[in-house]
Amino acid sequence: MSSLTLLNALDASLRRLPRPLLLGLGLASVALLALGALAQLLLYLLILSLLAAARQHLQRREAEALRDGLTGIANGRSFRATAEAELERSHRYHHQLSLLYLDVDDFKAVNDRCGHGEGNRLLQRLTAIISANLRSVDAAARLGGDEFAVLMPETGSRAAGQLAERLMAALAGETKRQGEPLTCSFGLVTFRLPPASVEELLEAGDRLMYEAKAAGKNRLCRAALPVVRTADSKDNHRA
């Protein structure tokens, strides 16, 4: 028997069924279709909810990976990405930029004398002071240990020096209020022409910071690069 013959036989059988029974079968089919559609909708909404939760979790983990766990500001990885982008902008638009590199004075002695808990609180105090004294365009980060950096895009030597001095004054005020020493050695470098890499940028700031350490700590050493020699300085150099 062919498929067409079977379909015709089935149709003939259905036609012989009482009309109320046919109506009941129709309503049952509609109800089953509606339940199936509702189940599919609920499953779709559940999947969307799970995907949204997974996306939020991933974004939160990515944000945490760019933050220092102790202080809450950007970490070294985040700072390097920001600095890379700013260097590219400086090369493109020929802007100056400045970097303030700072290191807590005698931090190891604080840890040895008072314990790591007090050392951690000192770093958190320093972070709060840095954050309170920055402009909205500046980017601060904890590079590791007790070393911090502040990147100042489109900022020349004068404006960068004012920010560094403001930060040093805030640290001095904090020390008087808390009764605990919190001083830093600062290296401030302004690039008239952007450096070739983030490492070159950091090395220049780090070098100046160590000069401040060697000069007695709790002070600022600064430079503008590349050095521009005047006619007088050239004559003195030849002499």
Would you kindly provide a brief summary of this structure?
With 239 residues, the chain is α/β, with parallel strands linked by helices. It has helices at 3-16, 19-65, 76-93, 107-114, 116-132, 157-178, 198-214, 231-238; strands at 74-75, 97-104, 139-144, 147-153, 184-191, 220-225. Helix 4 (107-114) crosses helix 5 (116-132).
Number of domains: 2
CATH architecture term of the largest domain: 2-Layer Sandwich
Order of strands across the biggest sheet?
A: 1-3-4-2-5-6
Helical residue percent band: 55-70%
Can you summarize the main beta sheet? 6 strands, mixed
Question: How far is it from the N-terminal to the C-terminal residue, by CA?
Answer: 117 Å
Helical/strand content category: alpha/beta
Low-confidence blocks of residues = 233-239
The name CATH uses for the topology of the largest domain is Alpha-Beta Plaits
Shape, principal axes of CA atoms: elongated
Note the total helix count.
Answer: 8
- Radius of gyration using CA atoms only: 34 Å
Helix-strand pattern: HHEHEHHEEHEHEH
Q: Class of the largest domain, according to the CATH hierarchy?
A: Alpha Beta
